[in-house]
Amino acid sequence: MKSRVIARRYATAFFRAIELTDLETELRDFRAFFGLLKEIANLKFFLGSPTADIDRKILVAKTCFSDRKNSITGEFMSVLLRRHRFDHLTEIGEEVERLYRKKMNILGVLVKSAVPLLPAEEEQIRSRLTKQYPGGISLQLQIDPSIKGGLIVFMEDRVLDSSVRRRLNQLLEALSRLDQEWLEDMRTTGEAS
Prior knowledge:
The chain has 193 residues and is an alpha+beta fold. It has a domain at 2-102: Peroxidase, domain 1 (Orthogonal Bundle). It contains 8 helices and 4 strands, in the order H-H-H-H-H-H-E-H-E-E-E-H. A hairpin with a 2-residue loop joins strand 3 and strand 4 (158-161). The chain is elongated and about 80 Å long. The termini are far apart.
C-alpha cells in the first residue's frame, strides 16, 4: 500500500510537470526509457542496484536522454535515483499512464485470456468496447494460462470475469454447500430416529 502511495505522488508530480511543457514528447521519452529497461536487462539491474554509485547511475540515466538537453523525463529519473525511489518505477509508470488516459478520456482495458486471441476476436472486443465507450480505448492483451479458458476484462475500476477458472470455483462452492446441506440433513434425520 505504501509503495502505491509513493508511486502515485511521484507520478502526479511528474505528470503535472510534463503537462505544462510538451506532454507528448516527454511521455514518448518516458515510454522509450521503459523500452530500454526491458531491452537491456543490465541497465535495469545497474540503476536499481543499491551498491552502485548514485552519480554514475544518474550519468547513465541522463545518457539515455542525451539527444534532449532539457528533458524533464531525464531529470525525473535523476530525482528517483537520488531519492532511492527507482524501485517504484514500474508503479510510477502505471500511474503516469493512468493519468494520461484520464486526461485524454481514454479507457484503459486489459483483457486476459488463456490462449492468444485470434485477430477477429480481438477486433470484436475492440468494436464492442468502442460502442460502449466512444472516448477511445487503450487495449492491452495478456496471456494467463491459469484462467483455463474464457476472458477476464479489467476496465479501470471494473472487472468482468467469464473465465473457466471462476466458473469452476463457483461450481466447487456450490458442491461444497450441497455437501454441507446433505450432511446437515443426515444429522437431523439421524437425530429424529
